[in-house]
Amino acid sequence: MWKWIYSHLDEHIETYLATVALVVFASLVIFQVVMRYIFNSPPSWSEEIARYALVWFVYLSGSYAIKYQRHVKFNVIVDLIGRKLPFVQRLIRLFIFVLWLAFLIYMFTLAIEMVRRQLITGQLSPGSQIPMYLVYVGLPLGLSLMSFRVLQHTVHSFIDIVRHPFSPIPQSEPEAD
User: Fold this and answer.
1) Which three-class secondary structure string do you get for 29-59?
2) Structure confidence at residue 98 (pLDDT)
3) How far apart are the first and last CA of the chain?
């Protein structure tokens, strides 16, 4: 049971969270347009919350991009090295994942500090009067999901080095979509 729950969440957590944020964003934008152009009375809070939902969507989608390795990357040099020295290519990949993980953890600590400061100050958003820490919580949540995905890739990369240190590595395929 626990294994099924973990695998299901591992497969879909970003999709669920990002979908909720995107639906909230789209619904509020449509609501804002209808209120502005049909009723001539746009509420001040809807645009603001839509903006916050879009920010949350971006942070959560970053984790999705990492999971499927759809993030921006430059493979030309690594692919050239991989043809002649696959072990070196594997080490470079592992090194990049470790550096990336360290960066995400550092950013996570800064994001937590930012949320903590928002809790202390008690700042409210100007239009909707919601606590600003609720807006800022999206950043550490997104960074923790991204860190988890990079950690998964780091472990897989390490296992690949241990199991197949000198096997040829197929060249990276260009993204079609």
Assistant:
1) HHHHHHHHHCCCCCCHHHHHHHHHHHHHHHH
2) 95
3) 35
